[in-house]
Amino acid sequence: VRALAQERKKDEIRQLINTLRVGFVLSTQANSRKGGLCGMSAVAVALGPDSNLFMMELFPPQIDALRDMDPRVRFYACESLFNTIKAAQETSMIFFSQLFPAFVKLSADTDEMVRSACDMVTKALKEIVVAYPQCLDALNFIPSLVKEFQTFDPSARQYILEWLCLLISIPHAFSLLPHLAMFLPHLLSILADPNIGLQKKAEQILFVFLGEMKNEEE
């Protein structure tokens, strides 16, 4: 793959990725799907920064695999995406509105290894958002946030609140305040959640928004 990249043989690389997708990732056999995901991960690592040129080929099949019925495949999809995201860096934010809902669900996965892998990928995403906050598109993210906020699962709620805490703490990130009305009812509903930790996290976020509104009035 490195040799193909050095020779700028983009068509051959796309053909290789497509072979991995059709022949393995879309297979009815779980082991083949896992092998295909490992192959895509290896391609991304080999391409490094050049993986940005093959975003549309690499990301969608891996994101789809996050919803696989087999927990081992979901785990491999997380690991594969971790390597792809590390290679693509801020360009991977193009797919954040698709990654976010998938990882909200995986944060509450029944499989512990999948949840751990989800945490690993989430950490990588957060590092990118902190380093390149301008790459996160509010217009695509907010509708996804509002939809996922309807969950009552405590782990999923915790995941969403942690992302909100991060976003409101980043200087120069897009402001969530203009969009507050869209998800405020869901945020307020968490104040009645039996989980005290979630209540406190929601209160913390609401106080930050209240402070922002006061600053705007002044």
TrEMBL record:
GO biological process: phosphatidylinositol biosynthetic process
Protein name: Uncharacterized protein
Gene3D superfamilies, per the entry: Leucine-rich Repeat Variant (1.25.10.10)
GO cellular component, one term: endosome membrane
Species in which this protein is naturally found: Streblomastix strix
Pfam families the record matches: Vac14_Fab1_bd
InterPro entries: ARM-like, ARM-type_fold, Vac14
